[in-house]
User: Fold CBS domain-containing protein from Streptomyces finlayi.
Amino acid sequence: MLHRRTVGDMMTKEVLTLRPSTPLREAAALLDANDIVAAPVLDDDGAPVGVVSASDVLRHETGTPEPQGQNGTDEHAWSKARARTAGALMSSPVFTARADWTIPRAARELRSRHVKQLPVVGDDDLLTGIVTRSDLLDAFIRSDAEIRGEVEQDVLVRILDLAEGTVAVEVREGVVTLRGHVPAPRLVPVVVGLCQGVDGVVDVDAHLSTAPAG
Assistant:
């Protein structure tokens, strides 16, 4: 079976965190000094209870309330604009991910929740890392050499048990071209499907016969 990278593979494990009582000026300075766009806010046990983002801080510093409807009422929005601590400013409830989630699942969650990062929690709901949209994008930006190696060794040899050289593999800008032969016609869509499942593959162009080249 192919190894599909998970949130646990892509997440950042060393995470800058805040406490609800962290002064807002300190939180802003930490975000700026570490060049990050958001930080989870943890309770005393280490469980995420919210997220403070750079955009939250910017709205606060400029006196601009959060748009009505995104996170509650006008009163709630103005309350965040008057915040003095991370706990008062943070977006809550916090949406989290699990380390064993697939990359597509995490990407769908980011999109549906309209957020740019997800704190990652374990079975105890305590923070274990954080994953961002750019982290997930990195999963699909792989060199052609990496993709070719996985197709040749994992798909063709290890999974399908084809002899090396039976199918020639070429990869250019994520497009996999296959030339050669397979033992049976039913294997052609199997080969294509497995190659499409390799992280980073954009498309598969298969030129496969079902008899050895004469």
Remarks:
- The mean pLDDT is 87.
